[in-house]
Design brief:
The chain is α+β, with helices and mostly antiparallel strands and about 375 residues long. It is built from ten helices and 15 strands.
Amino acid sequence: MGKYYIIIITIVCLLFAASCEKENGTFIKGDISNLSNPYILATYISSDSLIIDTIHVYDNKKFNYKVNVDTLTTFSLYIDDGSTVVFADNGQKVTVKGDALYPDLIKINGNEINNDLTAFKTDNQDLLKQRGQLLSDLNAFKDIDSSRNNSLSRSDDVSNLNLLNHELTLKAEEYIKENPTKLSSLILINNFFTNSDTPKSLERVLGYLEGDIVETNIARKLQTYSQKLNRSAEEAIVPYFQLTDNDGELINSYNFKGKYLLLSFISNTGIESRETVELLKHEHEAISKDSVQFVSVYIDSDEYPIDAKHDSIPWTVVTEDRGWGSDIVDLLNIQYIPFNILINPEGTIMLRNVPAQEVAEMVTRSSEK
């Protein structure tokens, strides 16, 4: 009897061990329609290293991904031209379901943070779908150096996109105020407020947070980032910068004291940058050269040679060889181009992202105060 008892105990232990082994690891199961690629890329950070995995798709839309992590981990899934983010801890099973054409609407479930973010998506799916369609339309315009009609259509799309982003930002702020202790609120802050042209918005929503999440690494990083943004916000004194223009002359922020300064960040490629240059030429003709100076800073990737001469710009031009890695881009928090910053004679940042066609008007208004 003792022999059989030992055998039974051994079998039970083996079954228990097998059961525990099955639970070990993180499982992500997906069902994504309209996939054009036979694989999905997954990336995450483990022990300070970036891990990249290739997940093969079967039945043109399904995938299974098992990975071993020992803490709550952020996974980025790159699905065709879009991406979505999954949060998962060891032993958790997460489902991913949606349409590759609308990555912002992909529903992720399996733990509290994913469920909360999916609920936010569901509540705002009409806005997210409209934004997804506009982004798709704008991407279609990207490589078309087109007629005026196309340019006007693109301009309308950009305006509509800005309105949708504003509405979504308001929805996100409302959610954060109602859920100040949830990790999902931190994620929405990161998604909607870190690229804002109004740094005070980031500072404001961080002030809503309560409880343990205030002490998390994510919250602390966002607080540090907020402080950095405020140093280049409207009404702040412009941080000291030093540049070398295309004539080899060294210029710095002190050179422009007593004058209005327009810093225009543009690209050597792209329709929007060329349109900005042409609009600024008209503004340059309308202003007093004794009281206003323009500086255009070309930001381009290493793929494209930078040649500002073809634009025939009659003011100071700077070519930043380090592109997006340059000090002034980081210092002034330039997130995209074209981007114009107007600085007053006292060295205070008047306006960020001022429209090129409104520079002369803004200077006149300020001078008349």
